[in-house]
What we know:
Blueprint (H helix, E strand, L loop, with lengths): L1 E2 L5 H15 L14 E7 L11 E3 L2 E2 L7 E3 L4 E4 L2 E6 L9 E3 L1 E4 L6 E8 L6 E8 L10 E6 L8 E9 L7 E9 L2 E2 L2 E2 L7 E8 L2 E6 L2 E7 L12 E8 L15 E13 L17 H9 L20 H10 L14 H14 L2 E2 L4
Parallel strand pairs: 5-8
Antiparallel strand pairs: 1-22, 2-21, 3-9, 4-5, 6-7, 7-21, 9-20, 10-17, 10-21, 11-12, 11-20, 12-13, 13-14, 15-16, 17-18, 18-19
Helix pairs in contact: 1-4
Keywords: Glycosidase, Hydrolase, Signal
Protein name: Beta-glucanase
Family: Belongs to the glycosyl hydrolase 16 family.
Amino acid sequence: xxxxxxLVPTAALIAGALxxxxxxxxxxxxAVTDVPGWRLTWHDEFDGDSLDQSKWxxxxxxDSYNNEKQYYHPxxxxxxxxxxxxxxxxxxxxxxxxxxxxITSREIFGPGRFEARMDLPTTQGMxxxxxxxxxxxxxxxxxxxxxxxxxxxxxxxxxxxxxWQTNPGPCCNQHQYVFEEYTATEGGEPVNFHSGxxxxxxxxxxxxLRFYVDxxxxxxxxxxxxxxxxxxxxxxxxxxxxxxxxGGDPNGSTEFPQTMYVDYVRYWNRIxxxxxxxxxxxxGQVDATDYTVWRDSLGSTGLGxxxxxxxxxxxxxxxxxxxxxxxxxxSSATATVPAPGGLAVLAAAALTLCYGRSPRKN
Length: 362
């Protein structure tokens, strides 16, 4: 979240001073933004100097799928400069002409919102992808959700798809799929998805899939009797394939190495009305940690804010009241309820008068 800059200076200074006095500690800006109607529950910002092995596995395997030409090796996966980097190289390995990288999440995820911010490789034969697959069941029993696929030869076009099983039987699994391609213009010119970072997202509900590029809804898949939306939990997968049926093989114009950069991967659960009032961190109990969530987001405005207990689109004194009234609702432990004090209430009022912090993507 970023603060607006078109503020009345005096009011902003007063509000800031009141907040400092009320809480007596610096306010840390959240590393990730709110998404209206959703609560962030898992993410990787790739801020370290190596792949987080607790979240991801970099696979070491020789694929025979889709007539692809790469060997996936962990050496082609790196984390540096705040980004995941998956690099395809023109070096043979174990009978394959090229090497590249693929990572899969160790955790499996149910319906929710998935988003990645990515900078794609650009040359003939590259096939970058951000997708969901149920690795623990035989494909395509769990369904496959392709949030982003791209051909290295088509910088102005991306695509999304959904695959599902049909006619399961003892000998084979048949499947069908639907897909949609996406293009955009900016200033009258086609958007180049190989130039700079773009966001790719999917919202997966029980009977519906929505696909987004840079916040623009471009494809919706609804469940029908012949097209089920499988709720089987899925792994998050990021990879760069080389060659294959989707985008064709490298040729004389292909340049190596080619790297896909990923700024972050994030997963949200949908916020529902059935959630416990005052449970601002969604851990199943109303306790002191929820007060911290309220305190740190005081003055924020927008839809779906975790600490907006009153549902009025802003985090203020009324949301403290909601938390206080429900404190200990699911916990047998007793504790002293922290009081915000008059200064915090005044700060909330001052913030309401002079500005609000609204969610926005970076």
